[in-house]
Amino acid sequence: MGSSPVRAVLFDLDGTLMDHDSAREIGARAQLTAWLGEGATEEERARLQVEWARLEALHYDEYASGACSMQEHRRRRVRGMHVAVGREQPGDEAADTWFGGYLKHYRASWRPFEDALPALQALAGTGQEVRLGVVTNGEGESQRAKLRAIGLEDRFATVVASGEVGVAKPRAEIFALACERLGVDPSQAAHVGDRLDLDAEGAAAAGLRGVWLDRLGAGPGPGHVLRIATLHELPAALSAR
């Protein structure tokens, strides 16, 4: 892990600072109700919400790897939903309209995790100069809109979004760029995120202290990353290292 004092802490956004999964579930339920009508059974809606989450994970990783654009990632998710209910796959315009319906409900449901602000306040109140940043796989405009909506935008000195810089987690370059913007060496920085592979292991491979936020209790993780169950644990965990 290294013994240099932590001078900067980077955060993932979705699933770490913002409760993306809850917003996705609310947005999907509302869109499915509008799409399928009130006649759809609760079991059918539940099945399709699980499928929506699966399609997001599949196609989001394609976007993060550079295999498709954000817009195409969204279209692939919508077409996958049509396949799931046995309907003809829509063209681009119809797919965009469908996703727009979901997006309206998803955006209205953006909320921070309850442990996000206290952790940021605790890091800022340590008496040491600790700079804070966000490293996120996504489009800059939409990711900054999330930070504004959940009241955390002003807490960070920099936001590095893969859609703006042309490289995504877990690539070392995106972590290095964030460290450069904050004026610290990677050995003096930590990165915290809910994805073991993209966040904690990616950061560790880039020379940072990788911190896995294991909200679901899936651990234990590998020994070369720090595992926490809640952001409330973060300030003390970093101090202990």
What does this structure look like?
The chain has 241 residues and is α/β, with parallel strands linked by helices. The protein folds into two domains: 8-19 and 111-240, HAD superfamily/HAD-like (Rossmann fold, 3-Layer(aba) Sandwich), CATH 3.40.50; 20-108, DNA polymerase, domain 1. The chain has helices at residues 20-36, 42-64, 70-84, 92-108, 116-124, 140-149, 162-165, 172-182, 196-205, 234-240, and strands at residues 8-11, 131-136, 158-161, 189-193, 209-213, 226-228. It has a six-stranded parallel beta sheet with strand order 3-2-1-4-5-6, with helices on both faces. Helix 1 (20-36) packs across helix 2, helix 1 crosses helix 4 (92-108) and helix 2 runs antiparallel to helix 3 (70-84). The longest helix has 23 residues, at 42-64. The protein is elongated.
Features:
241 residues, alpha/beta, Rossmann fold, DNA polymerase, domain 1, 11% strand
In short:
By secondary structure, this protein is α/β, with parallel strands linked by helices. The protein is built from ten helices and six strands; from the N terminus they run βαααααβαβααβαββα.
